[in-house]
Amino acid sequence: MGRWKPNAPGRLATAALELYSERGFEQTTVAEIAKRAGLTERTFFRHYADKREVLFAGAPAMRELFVQAVSDAPRSAAPVDLLVAGFDAVSEMFADRREAARQRQSVITANAHLQERELIKLAKLSAALAEALRRRGVAEPTATLTAEAGVVVFKVGFARWIAPGEEREMAQLLRETLGELKALWPRAASERM
Amino acid sequence: MGRWKPNAPGRLATAALELYSERGFEQTTVAEIAKRAGLTERTFFRHYADKREVLFAGAPAMRELFVQAVSDAPRSAAPVDLLVAGFDAVSEMFADRREAARQRQSVITANAHLQERELIKLAKLSAALAEALRRRGVAEPTATLTAEAGVVVFKVGFARWIAPGEEREMAQLLRETLGELKALWPRAASERM
DNA sequence: CTACGTGATGACAGTCGATGACGTCAGGTG
DNA sequence: CACCTGACGTCATCGACTGTCATCACGTAG
């Protein structure tokens, strides 16, 4: 057995989610999180850049998965189809984590500082998506707008997926949401221009 | 003459923008800002909730202007037309502040914490827009998606407006960007479904 | 078997953002 | 004149975050 209990980052993340959930983000000190994980405050900051980051450690992996799916899609795919490829990949990753996602999101929703961090995460996703689209030859401004639209659809669709009582698959909800975004421009309006 | 020099919030905002611009956001302490404005650190926090907020004091006014324009648009307007009404109102407000916007944005772009706050402001704008749309009778999910799409267009169009050398009007750039978002779904693809 | 390097953690001091409690004074009010 | 109020200063404190050095189980070279 090692000198220390294993998986310090994981223990810190678990302790943080519990405490944020029990008594709120602001009312939780880093010292308390560390204590519950059997570590010191200083060690917390060795694993996570700040008190918020502990809830967002999984974001880079999701971003890379999304980007990879977009990059690997068939050559024939139109920009919007690339989003669907990304949606499907991410949906699979989340498939068996709906309850965990609900708990995590309820903590984030309860605190403005955590929402800020969440938005930064989505902005990074958008930037990475736009970059992947450009690498596939999608020109500006289409690349940026497709990426931004994709993030909007993901945001709205994800919110539906974790809504109480919702049981449909994430992939299906994201497709529906994408269709509804498209429908903002009805056929008649489109022909008027 | 009063006991204190007038316009304390304005002096603090000016001093903060200067210092953030000169030596960066993180390298500036609140005490320094207050000192340059001829005030104390404690007084800074009486006018601004935190060190970042001092750059975003104008956001609520812009949000209200946008929402008002949406609310006041003619009954016949479709959801997407309501966005255009909002864009026109906001464009007018920014008309003679392009240089100021450029300086402010360059400060924000240089620091992740300021970007977080910027995103929160846009999220609030989105929520307020969706609410205004619902009050006009726009149903969900159209209201939320229209609002989110509107914010995306504003974000991208605004970035173009402050791009170096750009001289076109904001209203025109926003209309163009909205058209490009619509064009993500080409006629052919739309009929394939 | 011993010495040494390595990596994760503890211990401790310090900076700075943020907040609460309270004192101060110019200007208005009755 | 006595009193109140609003805007600011002063002081004290908490907690997030950082820099630095010490510690020690483990692996490895000799």
TrEMBL record, chains A, B:
<keyword id="KW-0804">Transcription</keyword>
<dbReference type="InterPro" id="IPR041347">
    <property type="entry name" value="MftR_C"/>
</dbReference>
<dbReference type="InterPro" id="IPR050109">
    <property type="entry name" value="HTH-type_TetR-like_transc_reg"/>
</dbReference>
<dbReference type="GO" id="GO:0003700">
    <property type="term" value="F:DNA-binding transcription factor activity"/>
</dbReference>
<protein>
    <submittedName>
        <fullName>TetR family transcriptional regulator</fullName>
    </submittedName>
</protein>
<feature type="domain" description="HTH tetR-type">
    <location>
        <begin position="6"/>
        <end position="66"/>
    </location>
</feature>
<keyword id="KW-0805">Transcription regulation</keyword>
<feature type="DNA-binding region" description="H-T-H motif">
    <location>
        <begin position="29"/>
        <end position="48"/>
    </location>
</feature>
<dbReference type="Pfam" id="PF17754">
    <property type="entry name" value="TetR_C_14"/>
</dbReference>
<dbReference type="InterPro" id="IPR001647">
    <property type="entry name" value="HTH_TetR"/>
</dbReference>
<keyword id="KW-0238">DNA-binding</keyword>
<dbReference type="Pfam" id="PF00440">
    <property type="entry name" value="TetR_N"/>
</dbReference>
<dbReference type="GO" id="GO:0000976">
    <property type="term" value="F:transcription cis-regulatory region binding"/>
</dbReference>
<dbReference type="InterPro" id="IPR009057">
    <property type="entry name" value="Homeodomain-like_sf"/>
</dbReference>
